């Protein structure tokens, strides 16, 4: 059964990569949660997608130009809706604490956002933090930056790794040959165009970002490992409906 991974929390219904978005993902029963990790100016791990704060806060500038204290002063919720005005950019530690306290038992997909800024030492910092406690969830690492993926393989050779990409066949073919890659995370357009190759893939496929009912239905039909979606609650309902229809046939 195709797993449902909440993309940046429940990105379609809550301000992305905030604690309230992750709580919604847990509450709705998502099988997995995806988040993005970057470094602040003072070397703190924070969860935010863009290299800059402009789109999802009331601030301007690159993440790396802010200290954690400065980032915590920004409003990371009002851009989405006034009801979320008190949301802040969370640290990676804060998100992990929420997952621990809420006893999240799914998969945490940690995307290292090193494709625009190759933050030196971020892989070691993330790995060290995850080794400080026994977590109720399982976790994996992914990145668009293959160097980050390789570094994580050296640090944690037993943890699943995935390479994120668009829909370029050349990159897919190259990644298929790399033995230590457990998964591939292609853009969903590749899945829709290359369904025969999807069926032949030796890797666990978790495409992004799968939001429409038609695209979800295709992924369910193909039996893909998982999908990243902005609307996990809706995707879970559709999966349950599809399962019921299949059982009735």
Automatic annotation (TrEMBL):
Domain of life where this protein originates: Bacteria
PROSITE patterns, sorted: GP_PDE
Biological processes, Gene Ontology terms: lipid metabolic process
Membrane spanning residue stretches: none
Gene3D superfamilies reported for this sequence: Phosphatidylinositol (PI) phosphodiesterase
A Pfam family this chain is assigned to: GDPD
Domain GP-PDE stretches: 2-239
CDD domains for this protein: GDPD_TtGDE_like
GO molecular function, one term: phosphoric diester hydrolase activity
PANTHER family named among the record's database cross-references: GLYCEROPHOSPHODIESTER PHOSPHODIESTERASE, CYTOPLASMIC, GLYCEROPHOSPHORYL DIESTER PHOSPHODIESTERASE
Protein name: Glycerophosphodiester phosphodiesterase
Organism in which the protein naturally occurs: Vagococcus intermedius
């Amino acid at each position: 059964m195709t797993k449902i991974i909440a993309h940046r929390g429940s990105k379609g219904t809550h301000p992305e990569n905030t604690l309230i978005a992750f709580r919604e993902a847990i509450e709705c029963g998502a099988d997995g949660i995806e988040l993005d990790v970057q470094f602040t100016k003072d070397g703190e791990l924070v969860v935010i997608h863009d290299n800059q704060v402009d789109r999802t806060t009331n601030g301007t500038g690159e993440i790396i130009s802010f200290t954690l204290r400065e980032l915590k002063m920004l409003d990371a919720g009002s851009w989405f809706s006034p009801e979320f005005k008190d949301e802040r950019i969370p640290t990676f530690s804060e998100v992990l604490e929420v997952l621990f306290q809420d006893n999240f038992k799914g998969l945490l997909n940690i995307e290292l956002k090193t494709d625009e800024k190759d933050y030196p030492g971020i892989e070691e910092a993330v790995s060290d933090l995850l080794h400080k406690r026994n977590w109720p969830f399982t976790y994996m690492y992914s990145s668009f930056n293959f160097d980050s993926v390789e570094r994580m393989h050296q640090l944690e050779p037993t943890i699943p790794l995935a390479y994120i990409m668009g829909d370029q066949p050349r990159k897919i073919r190259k990644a298929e040959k790399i033995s230590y890659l457990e998964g591939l995370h292609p853009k969903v357009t590749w899945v829709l165009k290359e369904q025969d190759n999807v069926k032949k893939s030796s890797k666990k496929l978790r495409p992004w970002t799968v939001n429409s009912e038609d695209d979800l239905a295709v992924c369910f039909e193909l039996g893909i490992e998982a999908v990243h979606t902005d609307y996990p609650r809706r995707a879970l309902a559709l999966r349950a409906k599809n399962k019921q229809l299949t059982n009735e046939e």
